[in-house]
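Contributing new records

If you add data, match the layout below exactly. Sequence lines come first and carry their own label; structure lines follow with theirs. Keep one chain per record. Anything else will be rejected by the validation script.
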Amino acid sequence: MRDFKKEIAAALAGVAQIKEAELTEGDVRSLIEVPTDRAKGDYAFPCFRLAKALRQSPQQIASAIAADEDAKAPCADEVRVEGAYVNFFLHREAVVAEVVAAASAEADSFGRSDIGADRKVIVEFSSPNIAKPFHIGHIRSTVIGNAIERIYNFLGYDTVRINHLGDYGTQFGKMIVAYRHWGDRADVERAPIKTLLSYYTKF
């Protein structure tokens, strides 16, 4: 898949201010960030590191870089100054075309990587209190846990799934004591779950 970050780094490496600050293309690439606010672009280059070498404010440097035609990478639809950052907005059509082509070619392997390097990760599921009834929250966290586990596996981690049921001896010990204090066998036989839960919560 096309490396847009590399293209932007290559374009910036040819800008006068970058050359004067003696930053390599590799340096530039390592500094490029993804803005937390997507309204501010797809990639951002901070100019703080250049300020000392060029004896200018980062904002001045960002403005000069953005105005330089060499900074306009082929993949960028727009280059905009955001304070001390030079922000790049990618061509939507180019991004979509690359992603669709890669997804089509790689099929079920699209997005797979070995970034996890077989490191161990534990994913804990709903871990319900078995002295209390299940509810929709248990399904929700189980589904989320399953999704997270599959993503980690896809990224090369050694994933361990845990659904800890807790110390059920303690829960049922409490329930037995509660039944002995306040229990009524007829109530339990008529509505076992509801009645036992009431004893547990009362305890």
